[in-house]
Specification:
By secondary structure, the chain is an alpha/beta fold. It has helices spanning 2-7, 25-28, 41-47, 69-79, 96-102, 183-196, 206-215, 234-246, 252-258, and strands spanning 10-14, 35-36, 39-40, 59-64, 84-89, 111-114, 118-121, 134-140, 148-152, 158-163, 172-180, 220-224, 227-230, 263-264, 268-270, 275-277, 280-281, 285-287, 292-303, 308-319, 324-326. The protein is built from nine helices and 21 strands. Strand 4, helix 4 (69-79) and strand 5 (84-89) form a beta-alpha-beta unit. The longest helix has 14 residues, at 183-196.
């Protein structure tokens, strides 16, 4: 049985950061639980691996911060009771490699690692026949300086990974998703990285551990993603919401039938129990369950569950759970050649 256990894919998701770029939402909830196109960020992180060979048998390892554990565990147990999910707490934020090392007891056999705010579209089915020791998913970008990049040879084999390069001549950004044929090799490389004290701004970055694996003879190649999305900042979350709603994760037809007194502009997702009166909803709007919307015009927005909005025009907005927003009519006396700006 141990041989079978070790051959199962492990999908490791580090998510222990504080989510400072998504405040105020992350003051009250873990960043992976922020709403997105009718689901949560975490749901889309899990679903993006559905083409993984034997996905139904894959085990997940969620690396969380101590402030996230209760919320993420409760959500996972409620929504993925059929999945084997291990929870690991990273008590101190010492970088990506350190996060993975906390989960070392689970890093055996074939594994994938993907950061929790990295959302992508890719086909993982080829991994059942993958001959190399690792795969790094990549995408060319106009300015690679805030990412890691892969320096490759003529066969797309990785020579070196470089974190946050100053040189922009190589724009092949690594998207934050990797496959390792043997997780034990990664753990060993992290141990050497720590022994060498290879850090950037006092953090242990994963690319340096991978470079050690390459030094030792591991063969890693690149594979391009079909789409690379981000949910780590408000504007990026809205863009990702637009993408998933356009990719079929909407329920626009059902919404148009359910709310004949409202104008529904596809694509939208409207959760169960929502009340919508005298409103225009869409395009690119995700509404959580049991929301109440009256006399509103909302476009390009995410509104989470149990929120009530009345008499308001909103666009490019993220609204959390259990929020109340009530607008009002204004009395104006404006002369010629005037303007009003928000």
């Amino acid at each position: 049985m141990k041989g079978l256990f070790d051959s199962m894919y492990k999908v490791v998701i580090p998510m222990a950061g504080f989510g400072t770029r998504m405040r105020p939402h992350t003051w009250s909830k873990a960043k992976p639980l922020i709403g997105l196109a009718g689901k949560t960020v975490l749901d889309y992180v899990v679903l993006q691996f559905k083409t993984l060979p034997e996905f139904e048998n894959a085990e997940f390892v969620f690396i969380v911060g101590p402030h996230q554990l209760d919320q993420v565990k409760a959500y996972s147990e409620q929504n993925y009771p059929e999945k084997t999910i291990h929870f690991v707490v990273q008590e101190e934020m010492r970088g990506q490699s350190d996060a993975l090392y906390q989960a070392r007891e689970y890093l055996n056999g074939p594994m994938l690692m993907c950061f929790s705010d990295t959302l992508l579209k890719a086909d993982f089915a080829f991994l059942k026949d993958e001959a190399d020791d690792g795969v790094a998913w990549v995408q060319p970008v106009p300015d690679p300086r805030r990412f890691g990049v892969a320096r490759v040879d003529g066969s797309n084999r990785v020579i070196e990974l470089i974190e946050k390069p100053e040189d922009v001549s190589n724009n092949l950004a690594v998207v934050g998703c990797y496959y390792f044929k043997n997780g034990e090799g990664l753990v060993s490389a992290i141990e050497e990285q720590v022994a060498r004290n290879v850090t950037l701004k006092n953090e242990f970055f994963l690319v340096d551990a991978i470079n050690i694996m390459i030094e030792r003879g591991s063969k890693m190649r690149t594979a391009k993603v079909e789409a690379w999305l981000d949910a780590g900042k408000p504007d990026a979350a809205l863009e990702t919401n637009r993408f998933y709603l356009s990719e079929g994760y909407d329920n626009s037809a059902e919404a148009e039938a359910a709310y004949p007194a409202a104008a529904i502009v596809p694509p939208v997702f409207i959760g169960p129990g929502a009340v919508i009166e005298s409103s225009v909803i869409g395009p690119y709007v995700s509404i959580g369950e049991n929301c109440v919307l009256k006399n509103v015009v909302i476009s390009d927005a995410i509104v989470e569950a149990q929120t009530k909005i009345e008499n308001k025009v909103l666009t490019a907005s993220l609204i959390g759970k259990d929020v109340q927003i009530v607008g009002h009519a204004e009395k104006l006396n404006i002369g010629d050649n005037s303007w009003i700006q928000p």
